[in-house]
Write a structure and sequence with these properties.
The protein has about 450 residues and is α/β, with parallel strands linked by helices. The chain is about 40% helix and about 15% strand. The radius of gyration is 21 Å and the shape is globular. Bound molecules: ligand PLZ. Ligand PLZ binds next to helix 5.
């Protein structure tokens, strides 16, 4: 078996971004790949690991994206590589619903142990985040015999038909793809930077909307990201989530935490629910679970998970053995290397540096987030008016300088930073310096 050579942990630009080989592939892409599939950077990857992505022209970029919050353990993490190589050589697929295997059971055991709450739990495995969310809704409907699903402004849950309906933002996710699934109701989220409300106030507002417009007795599930990811790393005011959990419990509603982006140590806790001590009835996970292989899960109260008829949940590939092996390797890495602590450390480095940029430039309305899920909301100075153009310009300038950053937000004015939790300090520091230089250059501060 091959042992991967660790990549030099450095930012190294040997050509312009994109270099000639990437530009060539970009032309092939345009001729072969649907124009409907986007790309944040115009480079093509040769290797990645630790805190860097190396492109086919030999440029080494600092990775503040983790493939959208996936490679929490770093790319090609040694234990993931080893587990996958071993599994792929033994068997690649049998279909868990046809002839089962231990890896699937082991991943479910780990999820039941690590997710919030010490009640009896069960899990089921799927391939993508959207599929997990769809299944959480199926399970909640089967359990409650109700239909309505409550979601939130700025929420993101996927690109399938039901999850498009659950996602708030039109462009690019929904435009011209309707009609959407029905019985989905959207209510206001707590967004402290814009609404200035306390958590309990914002919750009372959302709950009143549910009562008046849907009727609590009709609601199967409330589905919420404990920190809105694509919506712009919006951390609800303290008390908002606990009030919703209480309301759900009092009304027989299944409370579903979508932790697809926030899960697996990303926010400086195993799950973002842990920060306020809330215990969801069901939790959806994906992304960080398997170190980059496609895997997703629904985990929750045994009596809810087991209320579905036998054979009601599944899919050909759900809980594929290679993806399960990767998850076991990734989870072991998180536990052994204390990646919860690593995410907390990243927060302690990033927040003051970003606040200093905010103070110098006046264009950052808020620095927010938890752990290694940190963002800045970019505004016209002295206002809370979004500046999407400046956000795009800063992101592009960072890319050109060899730092991978992502944008987010309903108004496109949030720059989000999601480093792998294995990011070395010197690279994080360098990336923040590059970011600061681009802000200063673009604002003339
Ligand atoms: N729920 C909270 O963040 C995926 C989307 C990228 P899938 N977020 C990244 C894009 O533009 O498609 C996500 C999420 C939350 C669900 C999902 C959906 O997960 O694995 O992309 O289906």
């Amino acid at each position: 078996m091959t042992t991967p050579t660790p990549l030099p942990q450095e930012r190294r630009l040997v050509t312009a971004i994109p270099g000639p080989r990437s530009a060539e592939l970009q032309a092939r892409r345009t001729a072969a790949v649907s124009a409907g599939v986007g790309a944040t950077l115009p480079i093509y990857v040769e290797a990645a690991g630790g805190g860097v992505i190396v492109d086919i022209d030999g440029n080494s970029l600092i990775d503040l994206g983790s493939g959208i919050a996936v490679t929490n353990v770093g790319n090609s993490a040694p234990r993931v590589v080893e587990a996958v190589q071993d599994q792929v050589a033994r068997f690649t697929h049998t279909c868990f619903m046809v002839t089962s295997y231990e890896g699937y059971v082991e991943v479910c055991e780990a999820l039941n142990r690590l997710t919030p709450g010490d009640h009896e739990k069960r899990s089921a495995l799927f391939n993508s985040g959207a599929e997990a969310v769809e299944n959480a809704v199926k399970i909640a409907r089967a359990h409650t015999k109700r239909q309505a699903v409550v979601v939130f402004e700025h929420g993101y849950h996927g690109r399938t038909n039901l999850t498009m309906a659950m996602t708030a933002k039109n462009m690019p996710y929904k435009q011209s793809f309707g009609p959407f699934a029905n019985e989905v109701y959207r209510v206001p989220l707590s967004y402290p930077f814009h609404d200035g409300q306390s958590g309990p106030e914002a919750a009372a507002h959302a709950i009143s909307r549910i009562d008046k417009e849907v009727g609590a007795a009709n609601v199967a599930a409330i589905v919420i990201e404990p920190i809105a990811g694509e919506g712009g790393f919006i951390v609800p005011a303290e008390g908002f989530l606990p009030a919703l959990v209480d309301f759900a419990r009092d009304n027989g509603i299944v409370f579903v935490a979508d932790e697809i982006q926030t899960g697996f140590c990303r926010t400086g806790a195993w799950f973002a629910c842990d920060h306020e001590g809330i215990v969801p009835d069901l939790i959806t996970t994906a992304k960080g679970i398997a170190g980059g292989l496609p895997l997703a899960a629904v985990t929750g109260r045994a009596e809810i998970m087991d209320s579905v008829h036998a054979g009601g949940l599944g899919g050909t590939y759900g809980g594929n053995p290679v993806a399960c092996a990767a998850a076991i390797g990734a989870i072991a890495t998180m536990e052994e290397s204390d990646l919860v602590g690593a995410a907390q450390h990243i927060e302690s480095v990033m927040k003051p540096r970003l606040q200093a940029i905010a103070d110098k430039t006046g264009v950052i309305g808020e620095v927010r987030g938890r752990g290694a899920m940190i963002a800045v909301e970019i505004v016209k100075p002295g206002t809370d008016e979004p500046d999407a153009a400046l956000t795009a310009a800063v992101a592009k300038a960072c890319h050109t300088q060899g730092v991978v950053v992502l944008t987010a937000g309903t108004y496109g004015n949030v720059l989000r930073l999601l480093p792998p939790l294995t990011m070395p300090d010197h690279l994080l520091d360098e990336a923040l310096t590059v970011l600061e230089e681009q802000f200063l250059a673009l604002t003339g501060a």
